[in-house]
UniProtKB/TrEMBL annotation, chain A:
Residues 9-151 form the CcmH/CycL/Ccl2/NrfF N-terminal domain. Residues 1-20 form the signal peptide. The chain crosses the membrane at residues 104-125. Keywords: Heme, Iron, Membrane, Metal-binding, Signal, Transmembrane, Transmembrane helix. Possible subunit of a heme lyase. Belongs to the CcmH/CycL/Ccl2/NrfF family. GO terms for molecular function: metal ion binding. GO terms for cellular component: plasma membrane. It comes from Rhodovulum bhavnagarense. This is Cytochrome c-type biogenesis protein. It comes from the Bacteria. Gene3D superfamilies: Cytochrome C biogenesis protein.
UniProtKB/TrEMBL annotation, chain B:
This is Cytochrome c-type biogenesis protein CcmF. Required for the biogenesis of c-type cytochromes. Possible subunit of a heme lyase. Residues 89-295 form the Cytochrome c assembly protein domain. It comes from the Bacteria.
Amino acid sequence: MMFKRLILVLSLMLAGPAIAVEPSEMLDDPALEARAREVSKELRCLVCRNENIDDSNASLAKELRVLVRDRIAAGDSNEETIDYLVDRYGEYVLLKPTVTGSNLLLYIAGPAMLLIGFGVALFYIRGRNRRSITAPEQLSPDEEARLKEILGR
Amino acid sequence: MIIELGHFALTLAFAVSLVQMVIPLIGAHKGWSGWMAMAEPAAIAQFLLVALSFGALTYAFVSSDFSLSVVVANSHTLKPMIYKVSGVWGNHEGSMLLWVLIVTLFGAMAAWFGGGLPPTLRARVLAVQGSIGAAFMAFVLFTSNPFERLAVPPFDGQDLNPLLQDPGLAFHPPFLYLGYVGLSICFSFAVAALIEGRVDAAWGRWVRPWTLAAWICLTIGIALGSWWAYYELGWGGFWFWDPVENASFMPWLIAAALLHSAIVVEKRESLKSWTILLAIVAFGFSLVGAFITRSGIITSVHAFATDPTRGVFLLLILGVFMGGALTLYAARASAMEAKGVFGLVSRESALVFNNILLAVSAFVVFIGTIWPLVAEMAFDRKLSVGAPFFNMAFTPFMVALGLILPIGAVMPWKRARMGRALRQMAPALVLAVALGGLVFALQTGRSALGPVGVALGAWLVSGAFVDLWIRAGRGPVAGKLLRMTRLPRSDWGKAVAHSGLGITMVGIAGMLAWQQEDIRVAQLGERFEVGQYEIVLETVERIEGPNYISTTATVSAWKNDEQVATLLPEKRVYPVAGMPTTEAALDNGLLRDIYIAIGDPQDGGGWAIRTYIKPLANWIWAGALIMALGGMLSLSDRRVRVAAGARKERGAAPMPAE
């Protein structure tokens, strides 16, 4: 099913094939280039389906990659580079949403659900055990019949 | 004529499904055996009719009948035969017909193998399955009809999307659908049990093989898709947390949970209502997946199914089935009184924790997938949720699952002692920690990801072995080994599947932690180093394929002045579809892949070339296949076969109505 995204990406490429990061875009300093790659992985190619600009073949992604490298080469930190892009393109460009406002719900949902799950399970297992001490298990007539049937097979 | 027959067969199947969803249900309610008996022939007839219809569409693709609009849009006379056939499901309409075919296939299988089910339950299961078939046939007939003719047929077609012309992708959708839709039969069992108001160990035993079969197919389907992405994309990613991928991953997680909780129902008659809920939700996620994939609502920037009526129709199906089933569940669940009692430390509890981790991780994937939609509608924020979020939010669940798995697996039912389980697992624990430490010492001081992954994988694999070892009883080693080979296949299946998970974890961690990458412009004959290897770009040639033109490079890889591989990365252009693809070349190895993709010729001479050394890459898919193999072993267990024998006996002398 993942191919659909690719069809899109490729159909968006008007300027012919290109494979993600191209040699001509790369910075000469390996340390800066490594930082640029790291930053690129956090940023969304705006016209693609959930793809980061590092992997994307779209021409817009290429522009963004160059922009990221310009900022880093100009001496911006990783955070400043990301902030710059968020200012320009909005939070839509971030692949990992900020932990602010309504997004807190997104971040809390998983851990909260886990705690609730554990809580309910604990409550259930404990409660069941207590009840079972007062009422020992017995087979219903229905089950007796079934048991006979199974054993007598 | 054949096309019209196919169309007519589908319409007829729709009519049959309507009968199948009503008559047996009334029969089961009133206790009229004649009405109930209607279900089986209806289910089989429905399957045969849809198979005929699917066959007609396949015929249209194979014979390149360009009077059909789907064939024109997705086929071409020059296309190799295998892709003419796979073109049937390489488009929306045809894939929905495949979906319907599988719904009816499972219905027919339930009719064929369901001889041992109590007659009322069987009638209800088939009625519910019939209603699913009816819903999707209505969807196909009214919104996505593959049998639509063109008034003026063109001379040739527009070709199947070149990305789909690949063996990996040819078989990816059928497996995935077998998995998705296989869960429909679990759903039918759950709803039938709710109507029946009775869930017992036998129900667990009936449901489990279906879940297992669906889960195996999903595992294979997802692995194929991920493997395809790995070699086709040109940079070797294998999982992107794309909404469409998540759509297949959520049912997989829930099916895995269902698989385990059904064991508790079968062996201990506990967790009944939870298992029913999981069976409903698992199919619910399949429907959500269909909705996400085909409505284009979540990635609304570039919607695929541009026709909004399809999205609405699918949402309606989702709403009716989930709403109906969950309402029924709310009304009836309290009637499912559990029997088996178990302590806080026991195999049951371990399986409960397994279920919580799997279900919550599926929930995390779900909320991450729909969050952009929720944020836009409720909070007016336009944002994205991508891989960095999922990696952070999802991974801890899998690590926790891996940590508790071997301990839980050796615990006895009802009441266990933690100390004893830990003592039994001590050798595995020592081995895992030692291996993790060794790897940490060997790697050049980078992330903890690699060592943790290796330790976790070793823990799972050796833990599975220790489990078998303990099951073989006491005594001399030779006797133990012999007894080990005679353990039931379900024990082996469990051990194999759990090892597979460990192997996948090692593969993912190893590849992400130690991958090496090189992007450069290489001149012909230039030699450059990537990791331990030296790479030489030998030649670049233009080659014509059957329906594409290729630029093929010949690249040799050397290690210690010995040639280890010759790779032929390609760039292809499919003139009919007017679309380029990258065909990366791989040298597969047990410990590493050499992965090379060729790019454009550069202005100053030379070619852009990307080289990756991907350690342990194949372990990811090998692990997934081993998981599926474990599932198959478990499915072939004597217990399942014996139960099949018992069914026949009881089928001959039906029990009095309960």
